[in-house]
Amino acid sequence: MLATLRGRVRQVAGDHCILEVNGVGYEVLLPLTALEKLSRVDGEVLLYTYLHHKDDTMALYGFLDPEEKALFTQVITVSGIGPKTALAILSVLSPAHFRRAILTEDTGTLRQVPGIGLKSAQRLILELKSRLSKELKKDGEAAGVELPFSDAVAALEALGYSSWTAAGAVEKVWRENPDSTVPELVREALKRLAREE
After folding, report:
1. Fold of 146-196
2. Left, alpha or beta for 163 (phi > 0: left; psi -120 to 50: alpha)?
3. Can you give the pLDDT at residue 134?
4. What φ, ψ does residue 97 adopt, rounded to 5°?
């Protein structure tokens, strides 16, 4: 199993990149957000990879973040959800935003993803909610995480940031300071985003 690949990006296309590793070019399917970043990278990159094998076809999926790979592997265990749909989810929603939608049973957010209708959204919630809830408790995150998290993300979205960017920034601040208030989360997330621009 190919767990990671390190190499140079030789080409970025619609849904994949060609990653050259020791003279061999690998076609790796990635979320759109990752492809955007890779199109601006000069030098070596590390991709966390997942080799999907079904019947007589194989496809290699890649992620810039191990958390995205972990979420991808969880999503494809849901009945009726294949790797292409899982990739579409990560192209539209950050892992934090997706988890929040599952835990709060927000079918509207899930249906923003191409290929996810009401039934698929309900199936995702049904099959993943208890699993994600257990993970949150195991990670020691506060039971009241969702309300301040949601409010802080909404505040950043109101300032013009995409839901993916907002949720990612807020989650990083929250993990470091789980007792933060909404204004503190927003302020620190804005500082992080300013540094990244």
Report:
1. Helicase, Ruva Protein; domain 3 (1.10.8)
2. alpha
3. 73
4. -70, -40
Buried/exposed code over 112-128 (b: 16+ C-beta within 10 A; e: otherwise): ebeebeeebbebbbebb
Per residue in 160-192, pLDDT tens? 888 778 888 888 887 787 777 888 889 999 988
Please give the CATH number for the structural domain made up of 4-64: 2.40.50.140
The answer to whether 67-138 and 146-196 have equal CATH topology is no
pTM of the predicted model, to two decimals?
Answer: 0.71
Q: What sign for the dihedral angle of Cα 102, 106, 107, 111?
A: negative
Amino acid at 16: H
| HSE toward the beta carbon, residue 86, CA cutoff 13 A | 22
pLDDT above 80: residue 43? yes
